[in-house]
Amino acid sequence: MKESKFYNLTIEEIEQVLSTSSEQGLFEKEVEERRAQYGYNAFQKKKHTPLWKKFLMQFKSFMIIVLLIAAAISGVVGFLNGEGFTDAIIILAIVILNAIIGVAQEAKAEKSLDALEKLSSPHCKVIRDGKLNTIESKELVPGDLVVIETGDSIPADLRLTEAVNLKIQEAALTGESVPEEKYTAKIEGEVSLGDCDNMAFGSTNVTYGRGKGVVTAIGMDSEVGKIASMIQTVPETKTPLQEKLDKLGKMLGIGAIAICLLIFIVGMLYGNDLMTMFMTAVSLAAAAIPEGLPAVSTIVLAVGVQKLVKKNAIVRKLPSVETLGSTQVICSDKTGTLTQNKMTVMQLFADGKIENVDQLTAENLGGFKMVMEGAVMANDAILTQNDDKWTTTGDPTETALVDLGLKFDLYKNELNVKYPRVAEIPFDSDRKMMTIVVDKDGILTVYVKGGLDEVLACCSSILENGEKREITEADRSKLKEANTRMAQEALRVLAVATSTIERLPEEIEPSTLELDLTFAGMLGMIDPPREEVRVAVEKCADAGIKPVMITGDHQITAVAIADYLGIKKEGDIVLTGMDVEKMSASELRKEVERVAVFARVSPEHKVRIVEAFQANGKIVAMTGDGVNDAPALKLADIGVAMGITGTDVSKEAADIVLADDNFATIVTAVEEGRRIYDNIIKAIQFMLATNIGEIIVLFVAIIANWAVPLLPIHILWINLVTDSLPALALSVDPATPNIMKRKPVDPKTGIMNRNFALHIALQGLMIGMLSLVAYKVGLQWGIDIARTMTFAVLAFCQITHVFNVRSNHYSAFRGLFSNKYLLGAIAIVIGLMLIVLEIPFLEDIFHVSNLDGVQWIWVIGLSLAPLVIMEIFKGIKRWIGRRSNVEY
User: Fold this and answer.
1) What is the pTM of this model?
2) Given 144, 195, 197, 333, which residue is catalytic?
3) Contact 396/179 with Cβ under 8 angstroms?
4) pLDDT tens, 468-499?
5) At what angle do helices 531-542 and 555-565 cross, to 10 degrees?
6) Residues 556, 179 contacting (CB under 8 angstroms)
7) Could you give the angle at the alpha carbon of 154 between the alpha carbons of 152 and 159, nearest 5°?
8) I need a surface site. Which of 291, 576, 748, 764 has the fewest CB within 10 A?
9) What is the C-alpha to C-alpha distance for residues 434 and 417, in angstroms, rounded to an integer?
């Protein structure tokens, strides 16, 4: 049944297909039979993942597995040596903390379905056995006859059988800001969701009129139900950083195993003790793996989340912060995201000319005043005042007209009192007009508001500079030309006409009031773009990010907004939902890179568009606020929902929610994402350079058959304490000046690219060689002093080296005091190291000895060397860059 195109059928055909009556509805017996066949009008819930399973899923990454193996080996070695399980417990604590943070991120699909259930109308009016009843919405079955009126939420998908001035707000489903006028006539051919004018869809709202409709789909078969199903089936995607850290973890794990085997074999060839070589190999493995990296990367992201909250971006999923920094495409919904989600009158036509509203004042309105008065009075929107703030409620088109009056001191409530309404003919979709009669200082005045063609057909005269004269064909042509010009700017145009009558006719109907009218003018309105978005789009272009509009609205409106905001550039093309429907996945993938605007699209199309970009290797962010955006929000690498106008469904499906509904906030979030990514890379560079230094120290010592320069407790202390605190402080390092002038990080490029690996290798070699110098110098005072000096130089080299990694190009002294947290972390590390090196009780635990003045001079001199060496290297690099005109 769900495959049928009900909008192509007449009411009689619908009755036959669904075996129902558009007058009497179903009989109770039929209802029970259909419920047994189709079930309840409710969403099927995906089973929630048990807490224990969510916890275990946090241990899937290769680096975590390696850490668990390292913890097990450390525990065994500690037990065999009688040193206890301290090392193993510390590693396990880090891994478990990481898992707890991961479990705290709730499953998006589960929450999305809960939000969708909240959207479902709890009760509805239905005709069964010819009688009107109110029932729970979940009791509906296909074929039921539902009665709807202003204010109702549609309980299921309906094929309308009666529509009296019926308008339905479908923005949450289709993205179109203006309520759709509904009819009952069948539609020829295939149309998109937003053009199904004889259908009403579940979870949309009636804003005007009344009607009846036969239920065509319930629960998961309805349009909203299909979205629920899509949310369930959308796979979870890993962020670029997660994938890169996984690859890095595998590289480090494999490297650690290879180094362990090599050292073990070399040691055995030297005739060393089996257990001694096993312990040494394990120590080397511990040196190769930065135990604090998973925790550091998680905490760095968490700190970024707190910063984003202050900038109106609420992050629901931790790794999403970093993904923003890698974003290459932003697919944005139009209504409420790029626009203000509020219809606004932009242009007026009167006295033969078009004027922008912002160029008019209350003192120079001229003929525009008559147009405004007619539009404000022939209007059913409600104007209320709370304190000094005016609020309008009603149909968006009519509230726009009342808002226009407010700008020019034409208050609807005052006009209603001053010129009381004595008769009216409500708007209906056949006439496309609304007519009122008011008593204007004893003169009965008619005001008519409606579509231009319909109003013009009733006019015999026209106002020009306050004078009434007969309307000519030239006038009609000029009016239609003005209408076309306004429509080309995506404005929705309404016309206003007026007349005076001596007395009210006996029959208040179109034939007695809508004749011999005098044409007054026109008004053009639109849901206007946000001005700040224009600047945000420019910043996106500078940052190498492609903004794409994806909307359910009409093509003309979408293109006009896209042109104004700078989203659509020369050479870009526009596709409609019907175009997407006809394309295969491969065809869409080829075309998608040239598309700036997708118009009249459905939820399924949005998902296909995101998939097409992702198939081209792009990192895609999707913004939106409606129910229709939820599946694409969840599928995208990063989903961004609107906090104010956004539906619960879109918020729960998204990774980030914008508290101010401002597209420009995305640019701020992208900048923050890039800063966080840069800082995580700095932390990785900092930690790995130290680890390589440790490996070099142990590797050289074992190959040279020296006594081991570093003990396992030294390595663990450096990796977990002196490594981690400065690495965490790097998380709040300020962004570089050109951060939004560079292209996004290529997701295909791993963390360990050639340049990055070279930097780490050289820096690690530098730290390792300086530590070996300390070891060789210290040997003249004995092995204990040599180990203490090696341990101290390695730890203090980190402290100076952390300034180097803040930039691979600029001097460490540039912005030296810009990160007070880093200075604090360094002070803490120095303090902890001095405590370990000087307090006798801890000296025994860490197997270190007291150093004298000469030994401390060696330690301090060698520890400052990395800063001096890197400053010389960076200076040479900048000098070469200036000569080659390379900017950093």
Assistant:
1) 0.67
2) 333
3) yes
4) 999 999 999 999 999 999 988 889 999 999 99
5) 70
6) no
7) 125
8) 748
9) 20
Distance CA(483)–CA(477), nearest Å, equals 10
388, 386, 362: which is closest to 373 by C-alpha? 362
Per-residue pLDDT tens over the stretch 273-327: 676 676 667 666 665 666 566 666 767 776 777 778 788 888 776 667 767 888 9
Tally of CB atoms within 10 A around 831 = 10
The token pair that represents 171 in the structure block: 């923005």
How many of the other CB atoms lie within 10 Å of CB of 311? 14
| String of DSSP letters for 634-675 | HHSSEEEEESSS--HHHHHH-SEEETT--HHHHHHHHHHHHH
Which pair of structure tokens corresponds to residue 138? 């979940």
> What H or E segment, with its residue span, contains residue 445?
strand 443-450
For residue 665, the tally of other CB atoms under 10 A from its CB is 22
pLDDT digits (tens, 9 = 90+) for 436-475: 999 999 999 999 999 999 999 999 999 998 899 999 999 9
Go through the chain and tell me how many residues it has: 888
How confident is the model over 735-743, as a mean pLDDT? 84
Place of tokens 């962004």: 735
Q: What are phi and psi of 204, to 5 degrees?
A: -95, 175
What's the burial of 430, exposed, middle or buried (CB within 10 Å: 0-12/13-18/19+)? Answer: exposed
549 burial level (CB within 10 Å; 0-12, 13-18, 19+)? buried
pLDDT tens for 677-734 read 888 888 888 888 888 888 888 888 888 888 889 876 787 778 767 777 888 888 788 8
C-alpha angle 340-344-350 in degrees, rounded to nearest 5: 155
At 684, which helix (H) or strand (E)?
Answer: helix 663-703
Measured between alpha carbons, how far is 285 from 34 in angstroms, rounded to an integer? 66
- For strand 157-169 and strand 199-200, is the pairing parallel, antiparallel, or unpaired? antiparallel
Annotated catalytic residue 661? no
User: Distance between CA 38 and CA 141 in Å, rounded?
Assistant: 7
Q: Is 708 left (phi over 0), alpha (psi -120 to 50) or beta?
A: beta
Rounded (10°) CA dihedral 507, 511, 513, 516: -150
Look at residue 399 and give its three-state secondary structure: helix
φ/ψ of 584, rounded to 5, equals -80, 170
The CA–CA distances, whole Å, from 230 to 220, 227, 482, 633 equal 10, 5, 45, 11
Name the residue among 348, 378, 331, 272 with its Cα closest to residue 705: 272
SS3 content of the chain, % helix, strand, coil (to 5): 50, 20, 30
3 state SS of 520: strand
CA-based torsion, 837, 842, 844, 847: positive or negative: negative
Separation CA 711–CA 406 (nearest Å) = 79
DSSP assigned state of 469: E
CA distance 393 to 679: 48
Tokens 């009122």, located at residue: 436
User: What residues does 445 pair with on adjacent strands?
Assistant: 438, 500
Per-position b or e across 589-622, b if 16+ CB within 10 A of its CB: beebeebbbbbbbbbbbbbbbbbbbbeeebbbbb
With a CB cutoff of 8 Å and minimum separation 6, the contacts of 147 are: 125, 126, 127, 132, 210, 211, 212
Residue-wise DSSP of 602-635: -HHHHHHHHHHHHHTT--EEEEE-SGGGHHHHHH
Q: What is the pLDDT of residues 848-867, one digit of tens each?
A: 999 999 999 999 999 999 99
Three-state SS across 724-773? HHHHHHHHHCCCCCCCCCCCCCCCCCCCCCHHHHHHHHHHHHHHHHHHHH
**pLDDT tens figures, 755-767:** 788 888 899 999 9
Which candidate, 635, 610, 619, 620, places its Cα nearest to that of 749? 619
